[in-house]
Amino acid sequence: MANLPSSIAITVNTSSGPIKFSVTGISPITLSASSDETAVLPVSGIQFGGTGTNRILTITPTPNRLGLALVTITATDANGLQSAASIEVDVVPTSNYSAVDPTTLLFWLALLLIGGWRRRLVGGGV
After folding, report:
1. Are 14 and 76 in a shared domain?
2. What is the pLDDT of residues 17-61, one digit of tens each?
């Protein structure tokens, strides 16, 4: 396999876009993938495209998850010869990303609002 990057960063809730790479060997060549951190990047989020020597890899991490995953791509040719390469995938936050669960955020917001009204009623403030 050639032209695969050793590492990539993907913004949370997006995909990598097409990553072009090439494989050589006796056809047909089959590709497989594994992830060492399936909570961040399940194997179902690793998709292959293309034919022959020209291939495309697209990586889609789990929504709303941040972290690192090591992806191993294995190419197997018709004679059973294998070649493997690994890519470190770093799922990073956006500048406006909040890791707080929306339900938790609403709970704390409600407490603040109720607390403010309670102080006004008990303290007699306006």
Report:
1. yes
2. 999 999 998 899 999 999 999 999 999 999 999 999 999 999 999
At 112, which helix (H) or strand (E)? Answer: helix 102-123
SS3 (DSSP) at 75: strand
Element (H, E) at 89: strand 82-92
**pLDDT per residue as tens digits for the range 49-100:** 999 999 999 999 999 999 999 999 999 999 999 999 999 999 999 876 566 6
Whether residue 62 is found in the same domain as residue 118:
no
Residues 15, 58 within the same domain: yes
Do 26 and 44 lie in one domain? The reply is: yes
CA-only gyration radius of the chain, Å: 23
Please give the tally of structural domains in the chain. 2
